[in-house]
Amino acid sequence: APPPPSLVLVLGACAVEPLPPRAMAALLRRPGARGAAAAALAASAAVGTMAALGRLPEPLGSSGAGSAVAECEESGGVAAAVQSFRSAFLGRGGGSTVQQASASRPSEKELAAHGAVATTETRERWTLRSSARCAHAEFKGPHELSSRVRQDCGEDAFFLGKHLDGVVSLGIADGVGGWSSQGIDPALFAWELMNRCQDVAEETPSSSSSSPAPLACEEVAADPKRVLIGGFERLQRAAGGAPMGSSTACVASLDRRSGELRVANLGDSGALLVKGSSGACVMESVAQQHRFNCPYQLMVAPHGFGGGDAPTAADVYSARVEVGDVLVLATDGFLDNVSTEQAVALAAEMRAAEPGAIAERLLQLAQLHSKGWEETPFSISAKKHGHRHFGGKPDDITVLVAKVERVVE
């Protein structure tokens, strides 16, 4: 049987050089780890600090343990403490094993045999510091919030995914407003789509044997088209039935190891990537439309009728990021009212600012143009297609801004 915890702590504190926390945790989880040697190695990371501070734990009801602690504290003699430990508690054999483990910190090869890796090296990861701003069109009025509709963005929706070890994702969607004439709330579809995409992007393996391996989860999350496909499939299988409606979508994923950014865009929402070093635009998505003002869209129609576009139709873009780059995702409420040149100029001018500040300024610029009479991307496109439209286009507006950073974890 393994020795009591207090004894292992004594040995770990007095006789073993501290290990990294990850190595300690791996050893503790190892089903085959047994005896004082493996246990002491695992405990040393936690106890080493206490020993250095002169705060070794109190013995847990054993006089033998108490004498070992006292000897270690008073004399500082590692060999004497270990011998006291062995004499009092390991008389039935296995003492040599403990003594060998106590002699020095184990090699990486030895730790690997126990399912642990001894490394003190830090690692760097790419990351996105993100913020969202949105506003509903004034003519639509406020939208009621719920567990499914987390923020009043009119008929728009978004998600800002948490950072996994190897990937981080974010996305934006624009519910098609025409469904409101059928008594269907377009926001519910857009939010459900984004909520399910976020589930896919943040998925990690569970204890179930049917769950995907960690690398498989990250492989999906790193591919924004697969995130969009998976999110739409989950929406269609929603408990209680899938919400009716349709939506455009734009999802971005950053590989935190390689720094590769990928964007999947379906419809007329979109993405821009502005270099932090130069302020130049190095990525711009192109709107997908069947005809003027009729974008590609994911759809669930009433009574099982077909319609809409497949998520596999999304265009994919990629770029290698650098520290300070600014990624902008926006719905057509922004892109219809602010030209690429205007958006890039503002993002470049503010690229040293916080993401929230950049997003707020971009939102305000779009709101201003949507109410004005100056030429806008929407009015230019309308003219090209034989329609008369002057100035901006009032609409829901949502802007996500993410700044690329490099962090040590």
Keywords:
alpha+beta, 14 helices, disordered N terminus, six-stranded antiparallel beta sheet, single chain, five-stranded antiparallel beta sheet, globular, 409 residues, 21% strand
What structural class results from the helix and strand content?
A: alpha+beta
The DSSP helix count reads: 14
The SSE string, one letter per element, is HHHHHHHEEEHHHEEEEEEEEEHHHHE
Helical coverage, percent range: 25-40%
Strand percentage, roughly? 15-25%
Q: Taking all residues together, what is the mean pLDDT?
A: 79
Span between N and C termini?
Answer: 37 Å
Radius of gyration: 29 Å
- Residue windows where pLDDT falls under 50 for at least 5 positions: 2-20, 36-106
Gross morphology: globular
Can you count the beta strands? Answer: 13
**Largest sheet composition:** 6 strands, antiparallel
Your description of this structure?
The chain is an alpha+beta fold and 409 residues long. Helix content is 37%, strand content 21%. Helix 3 crosses helix 6 (95-103). The longest helix has 18 residues, at 35-52. The two termini are 37 Å apart. The model is unreliable at 2-20 and 36-106 (pLDDT under 50).
Short description:
This protein has 409 residues and is of the alpha+beta class. 37% of the residues lie in helices and 21% in strands. 44% of the residues are buried.
